[in-house]
Structure formats: structure tokens, C-alpha cells
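Build the 3D complex.
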Amino acid sequence: AQSVTQLDSHVSVSEGTPVLLRCNYSSSYSPSLFWYVQHPNKGLQLLLKYTSAATLVKGINGFEAEFKKSETSFHLTKPSAHMSDAAEYFCVVWMDTGRRALTFGSGTRLQVQP
Amino acid sequence: NAGVTQTPKFQVLKTGQSMTLQCAQDMNHNSMYWYRQDPGMGLRLIYYSASEGTTDKGEVPNGYNVSRLNKREFSLRLESAAPSQTSVYFCASSRTDSYSNQPQHFGDGTRLSIL
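Done.
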């Protein structure tokens, strides 16, 4: 069975400092991995996706994530946080197991302090 | 650039009432999905439609029915609402469900409260 674990439910950083949101997955197959962001009262927006090409994936708004197969991790980073980054972030895995659907992590709420 | 449009945005129901949540996409996508989002649980798939004319159960289908009315529209029906169905419901679409690199595009959600 596939699963995805977001290791922190809440992360708080100061504006201008680095962001690290952690995600681990378990899979018997080669997964595709995504990060989505959800701003208050909005739907989810795709930040970036990994699909077995380069292991370092660049996304929108300065975010990037690195796929590490040996650690089964796909952590999301940004060098310098902005106030507008405050939102909830979801790590998501997709595997072609017959039931073609996404599995979502439980989310990490990012707070950015001025 | 409408993308995925959900109606209504908010709804309050009494236990036992029925209602239909509407979803439409204008991206010519083949696949559509209904999720529910509950605190601390991420999103869970209720039903999906891989293509027009097909629907399949997801992780939490009990108490729900769906209709893929045409390529654009995918509705979710609660026949007899229960307080456990209080949640935020999201509709999503993707070009196809068959390829791993197809991202899903989400609507803004319907916030449903069952009293």
C-alpha cells in the first residue's frame, strides 16, 4: 500500500529565513510525487511535481524539492520565506496500482512571522 | 480562466436532507474527481470518473452517489445527509488518469455543514 507522511503539522518561520517542509513516502512502485499549496478558503494549487526525471525539482514561487529514493523523502524547501507563503502545504503521491488516484499527506501549515 | 467551478460555495443542511454538489471544468479534461477534506486528514477520494460515461468508487464512497453528466460536469449527491458528512468538498480534474505526471486542477471547494 502507498502512503505519505508529512512530519510536521505546523511550521513557523520568520520572513526572509529558509523554509523546510518534510515529507516521506512508502511505496513498492516508482512513485510520482507532488507538492500542492492551499491558501485559506481556496482550492489546491500545484507547486511542483516529480516524475522520475531530475531528482531536484523546481516549482513556482521559488520552491523546490529533492527526491531521495534511499531516504524515501521528498522535502520542500525555499531559501527565503515571504509573508505570502503562509498557507497549508500537501505532499501527494501517485502510483499506477490499478486504482489511479492521488494519496494526500495530512498537510503542514506554514506560518510566516514578520 | 475559470478552470474548475464548484457550486454552491457554502451550504447548511439538516440531517436527512438531500442535496447535489455541482462541478464543471472548462479545460477539456477527461478525468474528474470528488474529494472531502477533514481537519488533519488531508484529502480523501470519494469517487472519480476516469472518462465520460465511467465512474468508480474511491476511498470513502459510502453515503454518496455521483453522475458524470457529460465531459464537463461531474456532480456529487448526498441522498440522506448525516452529521459525519460535514466537510469541505473539492472537485478536481485532470487531462487523463492514466499517466503519472498529470497534475489535478482543483475548484475552490464547497463548505457543507450538516446539523
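The longest strand of chain B covers residues 87-94.
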